[in-house]
Design goal:
By secondary structure, this protein is mainly β. It has 1 helix and 34 strands. The longest helix is centred in the first third of the chain and has 4 residues. The N terminus is likely disordered.
Length: 495
């Protein structure tokens, strides 16, 4: 998931497209009381939201508020010391409405710890789980506290899928006798290992390596570095798997519906579409390549956060579009994938600035509710949950191609220590306000408040507030309002 937190941006501000632009979407903050929300889900048709807190709780959002009592509290079992450890995954069983079973994924033990999958059962109170009902399905020792992976979910075949990173050991991803760096598929309805208290599951007989003595039967796919977030498209049964890169590339893989499994996604032979180790001659034809990659751009870190294909009803124009983001840069995108072809890649970072204030950064996860609507989780203190919604300003507008962007802004250098120069290009004369805000939305500096344009306007920010006080190192947001258009983007101060 997360490597080093250094949030930096290239600071190209793209405004929300004008009226009539296609697929207008934004977000609204609905929760700001959970410090480390890392996943959100719900049983199909359930109006409640179940939000995983990395510290070891499942919070319940019901009737517009987070309930005071967690749905489940297992903080005593969870090791959340390191940033990539903790309570990380949740899946409701296919028969949850009848047997109340749900499954959690967390890091337990001490130090590097162990990856644990457990089954729990809801109590007689539908808003509260039975914390004493924990039943271990699987435990895997972790050599380090990084690249633990963290998504657990049921596939359309009814089997449980689990992603595991290679725990900062790249050779494990290609080792067929190691479960790390793999996607696993198990049957939680059976038990092929009755004498082993840490393996309470069965092996689906159609798993790709069953009968191969050189490869562990649980393995569904291999060659993964840190497959932190992945999901099935409920309409097509395709599996979208985002894998966090190393030094150069982030990637999205898509497994076709009905696949027999056995894909090798390449790490560490390849990173993205490039050879990694070895630097040449890495692919002999046996590797499955990603459908989309994007490069790392210095000096920021990059860490892809996989999301979901949109199948809700609130934004019909985005049916079939896959949402994903980047933890480090806070970028948010959508794309379409159809039979091997990626299209309609759109950077929606600016569009999805929350309509009720603040900004989205540290994109820890996406979530999908019981109606198929999507959410974004922001990791931090406090963390937040945002609902993805149609932009109210464009509801009912016809969908036509977007007009060229009327405003462009760039800043350099970024990050900066002493001062940053801003260049703002306007295609027409209009009132212009430019200001600097903290990550929680508080305005600290006004840089311009007067008509400007057409043409270019140069501004400087010296890293100080309106009173002349130097601001501490960190991430700040520039907000430019030209007429009815408001743009935001990140800028980083170094000290």
């Amino acid at each position: 998931m997360i490597r080093r937190i250094l949030l930096v941006a290239s600071l190209l501000l793209l405004p929300p497209a004008g009226p009539g632009a296609r697929a207008q979407v934004t977000t609204e903050r609905i929760i700001q009381s959970i410090n480390e929300p890392v996943y959100l889900t719900a049983p199909p048709g359930d109006a409640r939201l179940f939000i995983v807190d990395r510290s070891g709780m499942i919070h319940l959002y019901k009737s517009g508020a987070v309930l005071a009592r967690p749905f489940l509290d297992i903080q005593a079992l969870v090791n959340s010391v390191a940033q990539e450890q903790g309570f990380l995954g949740l899946a409701f069983g296919p028969a949850y409405t009848t047997n109340g079973h749900f499954y959690v994924y967390y890091t337990g033990g001490t130090g590097a710890g162990k990856s644990v999958v457990q089954r729990y059962t809801v109590s007689a109170d539908p808003d509260s789980a039975d914390a004493a009902s924990g039943h271990t399905i699987l435990e895997i020792t972790q050599p380090t506290d990084g690249h633990n992976g963290s998504t657990v979910d049921f596939g359309p075949d009814g089997f449980l899928y689990l992603s595991l990173g290679e725990s900062n050991g790249q050779d494990r991803a290609q080792d067929p006798q190691d479960l790390l760096g793999k996607m696993l598929r198990i049957d939680v309805a059976g038990d092929d290992f009755p004498a082993d208290s840490l393996r309470n599951y069965a092996i689906p007989p159609t798993n790709p390596f069953v009968g191969d003595p050189g490869t562990l039967d649980e393995i569904w796919a291999l060659g993964l570095r840190n497959p932190y977030r992945w999901s099935f498209d409920p309409a097509t049964d395709e599996l979208y798997l985002a894998d966090v890169g190393h030094n150069a590339w982030e990637e999205i893989n898509v497994q076709p519906a009905g696949s027999p499994g056995g894909q090798n996604y390449g790490w560490p032979l390849m990173e993205g579409l490039a050879c990694f180790a070895p630097p040449t001659g890495c692919d002999t034809g046996s590797l499955t390549h990603p459908v989309h990659v994007y490069p790392h751009v210095a000096p920021t870190c990059w860490s892809i956060t996989g999301g979901f294909v949109y199948r809700g009803s609130a934004i019909p124009s985005l049916q079939g579009h896959y949402f994903f983001g980047d933890f480090c840069t806070g970028s948010l995108w959508t794309l379409r994938y159809d039979q091997g072809t990626v299209s309609d890649l759109v950077d929606r970072t600016t569009q999805m600035v929350p309509i009720n204030g603040g900004f989205i950064w540290n994109v820890a996860s996406f979530g999908r509710d019981g109606a198929g609507e999507l959410y974004v989780m922001m990791y931090g203190t406090p963390g937040s949950v945002f609902r993805i919604i149609p932009d109210p300003a464009f509801v009912g507008a016809p969908e036509v191609a977007a007009a060229p962007e009327p405003v462009r802004i760039r800043a350099f250098p970024n990050p900066f220590r002493d001062h940053a120069r801003l260049e703002i290009a306007l295609d027409r004369r209009s009132p212009l306000q430019v200001s600097v805000h903290t990550a929680d939305g508080r305005r600290i500096r006004s840089l311009h408040d007067a008509p400007a344009g057409p043409g270019r306007l140069a501004l400087d920010w010296n890293g100080r507030d309106d009173r002349g006080h130097a601001q501490p190192a960190g991430v700040y947001f520039l907000r430019a309002t030209a007429g009815e258009r408001t743009l935001t983007e990140r800028i980083t101060v170094l000290r």
